[in-house]
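Feature request, filed as a ticket because there's no other form

It would be nice if the structure record came with a short human-readable summary line next to the tokens. Right now we just get the raw output. Example of a typical job, pasted below so the devs can see what we mean:
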Amino acid sequence: MTISENKKIYFASDQHFGAPTAELSFPREQKFVAWLDQVKQDAEAIFLLGDLFDFWFEYKKVVPKGFVRVLGKLAEIRDSGIPIYFFVGNHDLWMSDYFQKELNIPVYHDNQEYTFGNKTFLIGHGDGKGPGDKGYKRMKKVFTNPLSKWIFRWLHPDIGVSLAQYLSVKNKLISGDADVKFLGEDNEWLVQYAKRKLETKHYNYLIFGHRHLPMIIKVGDNAEYVNLGDWIGYFTYGVFDGETFELKTFQ
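Raw output as currently delivered:
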């Protein structure tokens, strides 16, 4: 991707809209829409790295209620010609083709590689990557199993969506205590994952969400691991101007 003069590439992750309730989520949605309005002025492209929603499931004829302002703003920006790329997270991993068909936004279920200018990027949500987290990795296999999705689809949406939203908040999947503490490079499993990826191929930036804690860590020669933070407590986002990458906070 070529970055035009005075244009930038933007990255954001982990908005978890809908949690813990629609009413409490609404001010965060308004803030995110304001951010989209700001960055569309000079965006070459926008990357959303997962968990935009605290829960999302696409039935064949039904999508979850709500999020009209966010979806409308994404549609407006995409219709203006600005590319948007969406990576599913562990909370919206049951996303299918709604974004692609309705908004013309491609959806990715795993990491993707990009070259912007002369810099190489590895981009993804980050869930289930690296050592540890074995319980979630087993759970993800169950959630993504075609039989599991088929069974869930037969629940009435009023029951299925309500149950999923309850379990998401009840189990503190949105943000646990570990998400507000830096564990040290040796214990940050996405840092370890980034270092292992660099053993086989070089990237200038390895950018992920999921961890909820904004950080930039040098992981190799001219290589940095980036976690974008979240839109729950930090309201952070990434911006690449063709030469350097920064984490910023939306005020």
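Something like this underneath would help us a lot:
The first helix runs from residue 22 to 39.
The chain has one domain: 8-249.
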